[in-house]
Design goal:
mainly alpha, MetI-like fold, 0% strand, globular
Amino acid sequence: RAALNSLQVSLATAVLTVLVALPAAYALARFKTRLGTVALGWVLLSQLFPFVLLVIPLFLILRQVDLVNTHAGLVLVYVVWALPFALWMLQGFVRNIPRELEEAAAVDGATRLQTLRRVVAPLLAPGVVATSLFAFISAWNEFFFALVLLKSPDLATLPVTLARFVGVEGIARLGPLAAGSLLATIPSLLFFAFLQRRLTSGSLAGAVKG
């Protein structure tokens, strides 16, 4: 049950992080303004502070909207946590795509939407995969916020459940702990194996197919 909870939370975090970060990263990379530069600077600055400092404000906010002890509230926290790095990483991938490819597509009669779908999207596939992996693994391995925000044992994620195999006196139940730890590595490996081909296959796809 805990493994399924972690899988649901991690997948939701990966999908939402990419959906939010991708358009923002494209806008920051393509439409260079002073406001965009300042925004990116603040995003990077936020990474200097431990996210654990926000545990009390986040808990109070989630309690106001009845999202404490829910997977939705935990996913929201994880997305906020992963978003700055995901935004910075994706905008780097967007900057590496030559503008000439988009301009050539426009000259050939492609609309803005067609250019994004047929040229930009394939070239961004490695960046999307890397961002998804980062968000998924970050959420899968996270312990502290899951412990603080989820009180029901039925909602507990895998790291929290594994921690319960260690007694209050520090005596670990080695059998269940070893089995659970092995289980905890499998989804990350499978997720990477499923997506790793996209890390390289999108490198020239947009330039060729476009």
